[in-house]
Write a structure and sequence with these properties.
- By secondary structure, the protein is α+β, with helices and mostly antiparallel strands.
- The protein has helices at 2-15, 61-78, and strands at residues 30-31, 41-49, 53-54, 57-58, 83-86, 94-101.
- The strands form 2 sheets. Strands 1-5-6-2 form a 4-stranded mixed beta sheet, covered by helices on one side. A two-stranded antiparallel ribbon has the order 3-4.
- The longest helix has 18 residues, at 61-78.
- The termini are far apart.
- 18% of the residues are buried.
- InterPro entries: DUF4156 (IPR025294).
Length: 130
């Protein structure tokens, strides 16, 4: 009986593993789940896929989605994109993303009355009340 349980255990253990690691540069890539890429330049399309099952064991949908996003973010670096937009839901372990260049730096906060050159030594101050 133990001979039959070992393959089952191995399939379950392997199915729970995360195979894809996020590259350092890909950490800066954002995913626009809201679909808002207005004002961005289209850099192309990224199609990625991972195993959604191991033998008869189906992997967690959340893990599959996470790995697909990680792979897409890794690919976006080579395309000089800083934003991804899912073009649909994952199907059989595959998903496509639009890659966009939207400007990597978020806009600086603007507070009325704060001088433009308020940054000194990495510190920025703003008045609490005017």
């Amino acid at each position: 009986m133990n001979k039959f349980l070992l393959p089952v255990f191995l399939c379950v253990a392997l199915g729970a593993c995360t195979w894809v690691k996020l590259d350092t540069q890909a950490q800066k890539i954002r995913v626009a789940y809201d679909g808002n890429v207005s004002g961005c330049r289209d850099q192309g399309k990224v199609s990625v896929s991972v195993r959604d099952h191991v033998s008869f064991y189906h992997r967690s949908e959340l893990k599959v989605r996470d790995e697909l996003e990680t792979l897409a973010r890794n690919e976006a670096v080579d395309m000089h994109a800083d934003t991804l937009k899912p073009l649909g839901d994952p199907v059989d372990g595959s998903q496509s993303f639009g890659a966009y260049s939207c400007g990597a730096k978020p806009p600086a906060p603007h507070v009325r009355g704060a001088p433009a050159d308020a940054k000194k030594d990495g510190v920025e101050t703003y008045p609490i009340k005017n």
